[in-house]
């Protein structure tokens, strides 16, 4: 059957907006190049017309310039048409991209809506309120426990403000009587009557200077004991 009737050819997919825009832009670039070349030729003919005297030669140059100018106008018309086509394709491409973005946004919103509904099914406002109330009760119980554990023992609770101020005044008076003019408390100052040196009658510390013993005078050592002459120690 394929040999008799042949095989149906697959149709090529239509060109996309981007493909059509690229093709038209290439045509526009080609037309721009042609217009630039014609501008160069027109500038050359303009210089020749200025340098040539009026006559047949100048008229021939003007005829060539007119022909080039007509070609330029034709290409400029084509370029304007190409620009309009490109603008239309850009508008279509922008609208197409906007529709695709809207479709993606709708799909994302639908997915988020479905997920949100599934999450809300497992959560109820009554359960949240009950949990908050229970947490407040637990915090109150915890505060009561801390207060109970932090109570002081054997501390009177019936002290009034007048009694407290009296105690503070008495304490301040006691501290003032113990403080001397130099700012040192009395209990930190030395007591002359209880001087240990005078009670024990200890000898004073040696001054470090040696004394020469006089004749018939008994000397003592640093501890207050009589010293023995060196001569008596010899055998």
From TrEMBL:
Location of region: Disordered? 1-25, 174-235
Task: Kindly give the InterPro entries that the UniProt entry links to this protein.
Answer: Snf7_fam
Q: Name one GO biological process term.
A: late endosome to vacuole transport via multivesicular body sorting pathway
**Is Coiled coil one of the keywords UniProt gives this record?**
yes
Keywords in alphabetical order: Coiled coil
Q: Which residues form a coiled coil?
A: 99-126
Gene Ontology cellular component?
multivesicular body
- Entry keyword annotation includes Cell division: no
Pfam families per the UniProt record, alphabetical:
Snf7
The entry sums up its family as follows: Belongs to the SNF7 family.
What protein name is recorded for this chain? Answer: Uncharacterized protein
